Amino acid sequence: MRRLVCGNEHCPRRTFAEQIPALTHRHARRTDALTAQLTDVALFLGGRPGTRLVQRMTIDTCKDTVLRLIRALPLPSSGPVPHLGVDEFAVRRGRTYATILIDMATHRPIDVLADRAAATFASWLRNHPEVRIICRDRAGSYRDGAQTGAPQARQVADAWHLLNNLAQAVERVIGRHRSDLRQPLTSHDDRSDEGPASEGRDRAELDIHGRPRPLVARTRERHQQIHERIERGDSLRAIARDLQLSRGTVNRFARTAEVDELLLAAIHRPTLIDDYRLYLHHRWMEGCTSASALAREIQRLGYRGDVNTVRRHLKPYRNGAIPTTAPLPHLTVRRVTDWIMRRPEHLTDAERKGLDELCERNHVLATTVEYARRLALMVRDRHSEHLALDVWIADVRLDGQQELRTLANGMRRDRAAIQAVLTTTYTSGAVEGNVTRIKLLKRQMYGRANFDLLRRRILLSP
């Protein structure tokens, strides 16, 4: 780079620096290549992490300079957006939420709104009359905003969110009938009542050292005290006050005639290893008796515990108390919900028999299974037969459980968007993927950036 001297003695500038096109600019402290490199680092990592990286590259800068490079970038122009995706994300979880808008053709974010209000979304849609399809979840604010700001657009609810709403309703129904889950399934047990099963129950009342579990002794003592006080004519309120128990606990003990019903829930609480009992039993019977090896195997299957839990589970096996059949599954609300929501052909024979037995015990669960599978089949296979959705809503509102009736009432208000689920292939998968990317950006920024910087990183990040 040449340095030039002015020959005019009256000129206020005596020297001039020659500028090289596409390399330098007047008064610039960095070359264009270095600025572009720092900008890329800023978009990928943010302020402090980006600064630490460039310092390892022997580039002297600070976080404020890196952030100024992000704010100096022009925001991209979206152009026409005929297919729009919308969803919320948490700026501050539980307190502040914003809205992300996605071009469903390119799967790229086109704008970020500062809140999730219907009026804000409607105002944005009025400035984009080219929108024809809106993919969204079942949030009422986006439904109302779309109806107000883009009445010409067709709203499409997301199939996954609809199935998730159905699963939540089914889970609440099963939760109200959890007492039926505490009774062992005869379809999973071919042992006699006085044989190994009763021995297993006796072992369950002992800890890993063979001593009586304090919880079992406390439950038996409380059950006896409460029923003795009831026989004397004491009120439940007085019993709760004297024994320093809640009214709900006293009511639960009073409704239970036999203490074994209470112990069934107390000694069979869910643990991390419950889902892998059957696998461990089969592997032990195959000859694999190493707790460390078995722990590594089930960790690859999703087990999140440590090897000591596996050792405690296998201790009865080492002591010679090997069950002749596979251990009984621990029925939980979520396990039964999973049985109902999965396709029937994907269930094992044991799971299918267990679900059939539960339906025979309780007609409420039977009708819930019928309605849940009817709707799940319509959504998964895109069955849009004439009035199929309307018939399902009418049937559920007629004799379904309260949780399913609440879901049906919400679906009736959002009927057009849900009907579009059954007749189109649009989903909100691209929107959910961008929401996951936003969570990564927020973690990189340590939650300390304001909305302006977060919005720019969402729209400009590659």
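^ that was protein a. below is b, sequence first then the tokens
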Amino acid sequence: MIAKRAEHPYRSGRDKSWLKIKCGHEQEFIIVGWSPSTRSRPFSSLLLAVRDKKGLRYAGRVGTGFSNDELDRLSAMFKKLGRKTAPVKGEIPASIARKAHWLRPELVVQIGFAGFTKDGLVRHARYLGLREDKEAAAVTREKATPVEEIENMPVDKQNSPVVAGVPISHPDRVLFPEQGITKIELARYLEKAAEMMMPEIEDRLVSLVRCPEGRQKKCFFQRHAGAGLGDGFQEFEVQGSKEREKYLYITDVKGLVSAAQMGVLEFHIWGSRVDDIERPDRLVFDLDPDPSVSFDEVKKAAGETRDVLDALGLQSFPMLTGGKGIHVIAPLVRRHEWPTVKAFAAAVASRMAEQEPERYVAKMSKAARKGRIFIDYLRNDRTSTAIAPYSPRARAGAPIAWPLSWAELAKAKAANEMTVKTAFSRRRASPWKGYGKLRQSLKISALRALDVER
């Protein structure tokens, strides 16, 4: 699409009064293999697939958009997922199949691309990130809704209920069918949660899980500006591996409620804020259990993680994720940049896994997690996110991510026990007493103890 400033004349040549705007697509794909690199990279490209009625179908490849850290991270994951044969049905170009290294179809990635070829392959694809919140079984090819259909959708703004200054269209649309929770109920929950939620989400880049028709239907992941964004969202430009990209963030309760109007069911936040994007102010350990591990064991793991961090000079706070696990979070003074914080988190996770290998694992491979708890330190990477405190989850039961004190955690029965309906049934003081006033950072002695270079 070509755009011109209305007041400027038509002139030949290049200037800033004319813009060429690329209209692209985004969706999830499953990694089914990789192609080797002839240069010094761990791999040249990822081989992608989507699911249709006949099974997994080859959908092309992506070779751009990777940082050096991401190349190393993905390559390490691939070592545990190798297989001898292609997991996809249908024709794969011989030149690609001949050199391909095939993988079990477990990892999901977000891909930006110009469109599909007539053969159903992605054009001009670029890697946007790993989708750790998405199961591979749920990935299918998405179909765009025609603009005319969206424009013709009836919206009665005049008679729409208003929450925090935001008109809520289709207020009776059911977003969580099991509980019958509607869009207006979600908007009111976010308005009520704002006092506790905003200090944790404000001015952080945020990725959204949008389910406009409800959690039981099609959901998609959004972290860049696009159609249907409410007035409460701001944009922030970040340098990617090859180009600058605009991400989203929220500054007030209107942004939260605008998200409900858009059908947002989850908020995933960066560990840094927009005024110092390269220095995180929080450290997150996501304790993710194998289904066979009891919740009591996860609570015990959270306590042990707390004790390890305490020995390294860091006070931490627990949060039920609304899924199966617990986050242990330590606030930080913004002193160290992402690589140091990530290396520290990786060293803590690895030490715990080495000391008790029958209970813990620090590798992402699902096969390695059997009967164990995965200490996910990867949330502490520059473009990685973690579920925001008080965020709803797009899961059965409408659970939320619920911060607790350590005393409250001891009494918790499940990671998803607090829901949109039950939260804030009575007024609540912050369970993270002193969190915002703590002045702590990664001490030189702690970094040395873990052999982390600064």
